[in-house]
Structures are given as structure tokens and as C-alpha cells.
Amino acid sequence: MSRRRRDGGVPAPLLVPALLAVAFLVLPLAGLVVRAPWSQIGPQLASPGVGQALRLSLVSATLATAVSLLLGVPLAWVLARSTLRGRSVLRALVTVPLVLPPVVGGVALFLVLGRQGIVGRWLFEATGFSLPFTTAAVVVAETFVAMPFLVISVEGALRAADARFEDAAATLGADRWTTFRRVTLPLVAPGVAAGAVLCWARALGEFGATITFAGNFPGTTQTMPLAVYLALQRDPEAAIVLSLVLLAVSLATLLLLRGRWLGRTVSA
Amino acid sequence: MSNRSLRLTVAAAAVLALGACTGPPAADAPAGAATGTATDTASTADEGLSGTLTVFAAASLTDVFTTLGEQFEQQHPQVDVQFSFAGSSALAAQLTQGAPADLFAAADETQMARVQEAGLVEDPKGFAANRLMLAVPPANPAGLRPPEGQPGLPSLAEVLTSDVTLAVCAEEVPCGAAAAEVLAAAGQPATPDTYEEDVRAVLTKVELGEVDAGLVYVSDVAAAGDGVVAFAFREGEQAVNRYEAAVLTAAPNPAAARAFSELVRSDAGQAALGAAGFPPA
Amino acid sequence: MSLEAHVVVRRGALEVDVQLSVADGEVLAVLGPNGAGKSTILRVLAGLLPPDGGRVVVDGDRVWDDDTAHLPPHRRPIGMVFQDHLLFPHLSVTENVAFGPRSRGVPRAAARAAATAWLDRVGLAGLGDRRPGQLSGGQAQRAALARALVGEPRVLLLDEPLSALDARTRLTVRAELHRHLTDYAGSAVLVTHDPVDAMALATRVVVVEDGRVVQAGTPAEVARRPRTDYVARLVGLVLLAGTGAGTTVALDGGGAVAVAEEARGPVFVAVRPESVALYLERPAGSPRNVWPLTLVSATPHGSVVRCDLAGEVALTADVTAASFAELGLAPGAQVWASVKASEVAVYPR
């Protein structure tokens, strides 16, 4: 009994690989902390570029998450609940950005939303507005890459939720929209929250599609990952400091939201 | 052989075509010489070289080094040449982090100096130069062109207007440092809209028509062919990048690295570089 | 008047084709085994499942379903109680009960007042602020009943409302449900597989097997004169089919049974297991129904042992544990079974 308690009841063939996995995932982060030039952190953080990049990252990731929620939750509902034909094809299509290299995503966005793009050309001719190299383009690129995380997560939650609650609501006189708003959405709220956090974290770390589609300009389109990448070429220590900031922000957000949302599960 | 000569001819034609809109070319590359001398200079080689030769080279060298690499492999059938093309500063960062390579070819002296200070190379040798041109999409949406009837090269300020969408390299990479220099020298006629990670990314955005103009190397203009139209400008003559190559002290295959470095600096190599649009060093 | 339905649904191997009619104030129990299509019928009446054919008409002229029309569930004046209450876990009990009126446009305060009043009526006064998870199973099902009834629905649908409850709770909730069904003025349809629910709550019963109505009548009729093995087993009878010739019925499976009433033509014979007596020797005296049979299996059943018998006539006998022990019976044993003719029910097929 005492032995069981000491090793947590984990058999060795599982324990050893699990410990290796922990080491593999945690050591690089630990390395970042160990090698950080702590004495320079103050001045580095005080430099206007860092604050600017951090602010832009937080704002654009939050906006991307908002857009993803607005569009992704209804999409997840369609995938999970509707009886449309070709739903599985649709699901495969909309989750392609999950596996697509983000740079390819950036190029694809150019071809559609760029100034010469299929849609972007029309927009540019009509309004003179061109999306690339604007903060909006950062949000678009991040949304493209991050929304599938939200869709998958919410669709899973919807599938797990008991659809008979929706039947019950219908027998109580609620139309489908009221049912969605007052029953379905609250039931899958933990799943939506988890999806939003995943989506936000993915958007915050987005690099490839952003630098391709939105470019790199301090204050407008240079997010933290871009700043880290370019700093690494000039001043590796600055890159470490920037990475630490990004790590701290991600960690703080995950811990905060975990306590508030993710620990809760649906009890039917 | 026939493939290569076709390629060089096309490149040479592109340079000539450029001449039409750049005004008087700064220097005429001896393009025609390339095919004739390529195999003759093989006499310096074949000292029983073998193994893999890893070359880290600036992104702007992509086309010409690929051609030279094929040539090198023909001369030394036992050698397999592997290239890693990227922004020089990214390559320098990789080398200082211990990336294994035999030869480093940087687009400017600053990045070579970084690697040299780290004690990774000795005795870098210059082999080419490059200068910036203003590239615009063929459709030229912003209608940029130098004033007519003016002797000599125009200033960048006379070509650029402040409202254009402009892409340049990030200042961390050589072409970005050069871009900052020419823009400053021209009195900041326009503000860049994006700082790209390397010169090829700038070129791509010009080719896609997503920006009105981009500051790229004359060699990239040659590589882009009909994809872009380019103008030379006065300030470009002052901000010339010197390309340097050096064998790494820890090179696994130093002999092959030296041989390739010599090929690049040989008449054949210089001819190929010239054909690819690199002005002589 | 009130509810008239002809429900036709095809789902894979199961084809449901059932006619129902429920008058105002009447409670119709739909009794049947699992998979017979009971819940399908209820889902059609609720509008949750558009039928493949037939029609659902309320009050003689309000068409809910026919070949051309389908009224969606939220526009039907119905209340529905589900097996596992399905109270919304994120809403308080009061909010759950007020949900229907709110959806149908009743102002917030009025909806809450109606909900509170109904919680009072089902004996849940003071529990309105709790979450469904904080209620016991019986309380939750009473809250679900309040939620279904608060809108004064035209039709009340109950889908196995008691089967998720433990035996003790089921008794009290059944009594509660009975009280509210008695007061209820509309048409109620109760789906159940438990004959006790049907007997206790319904004014009429239809038995559905394999998507068809196999028997209809008052609970007492159905209990006394089952027409299928399933119903007979449910109400604890052994059902034998045969042909009557006076006071003797020749069974279809062979053998004959003596009955007290005259019977002619195709009939059912129903025997209560507790009326079957077992002996080791052929009993003396003159019981007319005596058969030598083999004990196939014996299972304890409350205070009695249920003995399944095979032979000339397939019977089931309930004997007390004490007599079972006295007889020293074991599967395979040869016994004599007897039933008094007066204990045998006979009715036309």
C-alpha cells in the first residue's frame, strides 16, 4: 500500500515515458529562464518597442478570438447539430488550417484578400482600402490560423452535450435560436471557454501567416513572435527577454482562466 | 550544359532588359563569357574531393549559387553540395548557435563580422557586391517613374512618393541595413509599410502586387525577370553591400569549401555572378 | 375531440403505424416493451419528429401534422416530462419552471410568479433557488412536472416519467403524478413499460408491440384479459391460446384446459401463477386440470418461488418458499400441477 501511494499507482512502462515527456516539454522553458539576462530585463522591457509589440499581440489575439467566437461557435453548431449533407467534408475543409503550414495560409490569404486578390481587388477598387500590412490583416491572419481550434473544441462540447435538453426546450415553446441562446450555449460554456483560450493562445503565438500576410511593422503589424524572431538575428539576449515576456503572459492567462473556467465541467 | 547556358542567357537578357529602364547600367557584366569558361577553370579543382559540402548562403545568392553548385558537382562527382539559403543574419545566428556548415557566404560584412567575432571563421574573402534598386510591379499601380530628360541617375526621392506602400528588409538583415541607409540619404521620401525578414520576401510582395514598391538587390531584379520592373537610383551607388565568403574553422569538409570558394571567385564564378546581376565587387 | 393521431414512422427495421385518440381529461397509457416505438410516437406528438405519414389533429380541426403540414414543437401547446427530468443544469429550479412561459412571451415577473405557484403545488416550496443538481431524483421529477404543466398545455406528454426513480420514490411521485393528472383538463399521453404505472395512472391503455397496437382497453380489462404473451407476463398471467368447446378449451399447443364458463371458438385462457398448485404425487380428489410436468427453472420472486414448467401445457407456478423446500424440488424434477377450473379466465381472441 505504501509503495502504491509513493509512486501514485503509475506502472513503470507508463511512468518513464511520461517523465521523459515532461522533461522534453518543460526543460526548454526552464532553459529560457536559466539563460535569461536578468540584469537586462528592466531596460529591455522599458524599451518602447517591446511594449508596443506586446500591446499589439494582446490586442490582436483578443480581437482574433472575438471574431473566432462570433463566427466559429455558429460553425461548430452547424457541424455538430445540423443535418446538412456533406458535413464531414465541410469539417475537413474548415480544419485544414490546423495542419496547413501557417506561411502557406499567409500566401493563400494574399491570393484572396490581398490588394490583387480575388476579393481584395474588388474591395480595393471600391474603397481604396487594402488589407495587407494593417493591424486588421494581423487579426485576419491570426483568426485564419486559430479559429479551427475553437471550432473543434466547441463542436466536441456540443457533441458531448445531451441534445435532449434542446428537445426539452422546444417542448417548452423555445424556438431554435432561443434554445441555442438560453440552453445550448450555457451548457457548452466550459467547452467554449476552453476553445477560446486555445484559440487565443494560438493567435498570440502566430508567426508564419502574420509575417507573410500582414508584414512586419513596429506598432502596426509587428507582434511579439515577429519581434522575437528578428531580435534573434541581431541580439539573442533581447530575443530571450521577449520570449520570457511572452511565456509569462501565456502562463498567467492559462492559469487565470484554468481556475475560472476550465476546471468546471458540464454536469447533466 | 545546355540547361545551364540557357539559364545564364536568360539571366543576361534580363539584365540587358533592365538596362532599358535603369538608364546607363553601372557596369556591363561579361555575361557572354560565362558558358565558355565554366569548364576550363576546372583545372584548379579535383584534388580528390569527396563527401558533403554544406554552404550557408545569403538568400540573394539562391539562383547563382544553385547553378555554381551544379557546376561544382560536375567537376567533383564525389561531392554532394547542400545549400541553406536564408537571410544572412538568420544564417549568422544559426552558425553562432552551432549549426554545422563548411562555407558561409554573407550578403554584407556586418554579418560576416558577427561570425568572425564568434571565432567561427577566419579570413573572409569578398566575391561580389550588390546594390539596391527600387522594384515595382509590372502594372506599376502607383505610377512611379524617374523624371525624364535628366542626366545621370535620379535620387530615390525623385522616384518615390510618400503615399506609396513600400516594403523593405528588416534592419536586422543586410538588405534592410542598406535600405535604411539609402532612405536616410534620400531624406526619407517615404516610410516603409513593412519590414520583411529577407529580400526574397520583399520581392515576392512586389511580384504579387501587394505593395507599390520594394527596395531589393539588383541581382533579385534579374532573378525576377518579368515579374518586376526596377529603377536604379543615385543613393544606391553609395550603399553597396560587399558579399563575403569564408570557410568555417570547424568545417567538416574544409577542402571542398575552399574549392567552392575559389570557384566563386574564379573567372567562371564571377561571370555567373555578373550574369545573375551582381555588379563586380 | 381533443387529440386524434394516426402516426406512421419508418425507422430502419421498425415500422410504426398506430392510431390513438385521447379525450379531454383522459390519460392514455401507451404500454409496450423497449423498442416497440412508444417513444417515437411521443416524439411525433411533440413535433420533435416529423412523421412519415398519418395525421395529428387536436380539437377536431387544429392540424399539427398531415401530409402537407408540420407544426414545429415550439408552436404546439404541449408539456412534456422526460424519463430523466432534463431540467436545465445551468438554471435554478424556478428559472427552469419559468422557462416555458418566458419562451412564450410571458413577462419575467409573471412567469416567475407562475413558476413559484406551481412549485408550491408539487410540494417544492422554498426549493426554487436551488440548482437541479441539488435536488433528489423525486424532487427533480416533480420540478419537471411543474415545468411541463405551468403553461397549461393542451396536451401533456409523459415519457417513462417514473422509470428512473428508485422503488420508494416511485411510489410517492406516482401518487403525486396521479393527483395532478386527475386535476388536468387536457389530453395526457403516458408512455411506459411498467404496467403498474399504466394501471395506476391511466384511464385507458393501448399496448404497442413492434409498432402496432395489439390491445386497447381500460386498465382493468387489459390486466384481466391480456391478448399477448408480453402483456400477460407484465400483469403476471400465463396466457394460453386455444379453441373453446363448452367448458373445455383445446389448446393450440396441445392438451386441454377445463374452464368454468362456456367458451366457443378461438379463445384465450389466462392462468394466475399463484393459482397453480404443485404435487409430487397425482393429487387425490377431483380437480379437472391436472398435468404431469417437468420443472425447468425456479427463481425466487419476493416471498414466493416462481417455477417454470414444461410438458403438455407450459405453465408458471408461484409456490411459497416453504412449500418449495418441503417438496424438495430441483430443476428436472417431475411434478403434478393442478388448477381449479374456476381460477381459469377465458375470453374470446
Please write the string of helix (H) and strand (E) elements of chain B.
HHEHEHEHEEHEHEHEHEEHH
The CATH architecture category of the largest domain in chain B equals: 3-Layer(aba) Sandwich
How many strand units of chain B?
A: 10
**CATH class value of the largest domain in chain B:** Alpha Beta
Q: Which chains have the largest interface? A: A-C, 23 and 27 residues
Assembly of the depicted chains: heterotrimer
- On the 0 to 100 scale, the average pLDDT of chain C is 89
Could you please say which CATH topology of the largest domain in chain C applies here? Rossmann fold
Secondary structure: helix percent of chain B: 25-40%
Distance between the first and last residues' Cα of chain C: 30 Å
Model regions low in confidence, pLDDT < 50 over at least 5 residues of chain B: 1-45
State the secondary-structure class of chain C: alpha+beta
Q: What is the beta-strand fraction of chain B?
A: 15-25%
Give the name of the CATH architecture of the largest domain in chain C: 3-Layer(aba) Sandwich
Question: Between the first and last Cα atoms of chain B, what is the distance in angstroms?
Answer: 27 Å
Rg of chain C: 24 Å
- Which overall shape of chain B is indicated by the principal axes computed on the Cα atoms? elongated
Strand order of the largest sheet of chain C: 6-7-8-3-9-10
Tally of helical segments of chain B: 11
Q: Major sheet of chain C, described briefly? A: 6 strands, mixed
Describe this structure in words.
The complex is a heterotrimer of chains A (268), B (281) and C (349). Chain A is mainly α. Chain A is built from 15 helices and no strands. In chain A, helix 4 (48-81) crosses helix 12, helix 7 (102-113) packs parallel to helix 13 and helix 14 (224-234) packs antiparallel against helix 15 (236-262). Chain A is globular. In chain B, helix 4 (88-96) packs parallel to helix 5 (109-117) and helix 10 (254-265) crosses helix 11. Chain B is α/β, with parallel strands linked by helices and 281 residues long. Chain C has 2 domains: 3-229, P-loop containing nucleotide triphosphate hydrolases (Rossmann fold, 3-Layer(aba) Sandwich), CATH 3.40.50.300; 236-348, OB fold (Dihydrolipoamide Acetyltransferase, E2P) (Beta Barrel), CATH 2.40.50.100. In chain C, helix 2 runs parallel beside helix 4, helix 3 packs across helix 4 and helix 4 (137-149) packs parallel to helix 5 (167-183). Chain C is elongated, with a radius of gyration of 24 Å. Chains in contact: A-B, A-C. The A-C interface holds A 162, 164-165, 167-176, 178-179, 182-183, 186-187, 189, 266-268 and C 43, 46-48, 72-76, 78-80, 82, 86, 88-91, 99-100, 103-104, 133, 147-148, 151, 157.
